[in-house]
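Recall that a protein's primary structure is simply its ordered list of amino acids. Everything else, from secondary elements to tertiary packing, is in principle encoded there. The following example makes that idea concrete.
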Amino acid sequence: MWLGFSRMETHDDFDLVPVDEISINDISVAEFRAKYLVPGVPCLFTDFSCSAGDAAAWSRSFFEQSLIGDQEIYYTKADALLDFGQSLPLRSFLKQLDEGTPIKHHAPAFPPYEFLLNSKVALMEQVDLRALQRLFPDASFAGQGPWDWTSWPLLPPYPPQLFVAGANSTSPGHYDPDMSHTLHWCVFGHKRATLFPHSFVSEAALWQLAWEDLRKPIDWTKAPECLKGLRGWTVDIKPGQMLFMPSRTWHWFSTEEVSFSYVLRCRSFSSVLGSLKFFWGLQSPAVTLPAYGAMWAKIPPDLRQKMIRFRFLPPALASPIFRASILILGLPVYLWLRVRSGMSSLLMSCTRVKPAPRI
């Protein structure tokens, strides 16, 4: 057994195994940490909705009722980032998805008009996380608990999000570079995911697969052949189930039907060393602040006034001088990321991933 891969299955391109399905209420803290959290092995909580407090009632009909269904939700085309240029009442948005319109709601972390945070109903406050939080170390850093996202982007974790998309849509492969553990709860719908453990050696090659639909055969004349036989996991996520992805797990998602997911994160580190890895990573404040500032500058002023749940001063983020200052201060980070990518590419060119043994 290696990193949770004990039941290898045949796959045309990779060696994939189904993730373990466990009960969030029955598994002990010691077992969860020993089998999944510490070794970095994903698992599927099959009964999270039973422990979600008032959010246990979340369903499609719940979100289509009069009060919530009338709430405006911003959206974009299925292959683009949210631009705050278009919105529909949630009820109408879901109807558009039923009709096959290629749109989605996938909000960036900051500064977003996030449906969860700004709806007329305090949706985030309905989610009871106690059954989940007991499984993770309650280690604070810089005075903040591991689930406290209010200092983003200066400190993880990334804020909670909604992902709402239609049937047969996909998301590009990536890992969450804020270094947090990710919990992906399927409220309604049906999703599938292909997962791989993080490795510095394979990182550059996996980025080249980011826009591939892993449900289809890989064209190895164009993709890095060294990834053939890479070990990973596969999972189907159905309503009420929550996928646990350890820090920096690579993931490719697809939706098999109209799906509505709630995603939250738990910071994986509580030390200065961990914070240094974050500050020199892909979501360093030196990278995110200029991008968020440019996004903030494009948001209509009346909409900015509604974004009151965040601590940062919007005028500073909208200032070109502020963004330029961050870029100058962050230049060493940008240079390091380029060097890091080059080192990963070099190592991958000299390394071949051995296929897993057939059982």
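The chain has one domain: 15-349. DSSP finds 13 helices and 14 strands in the chain.
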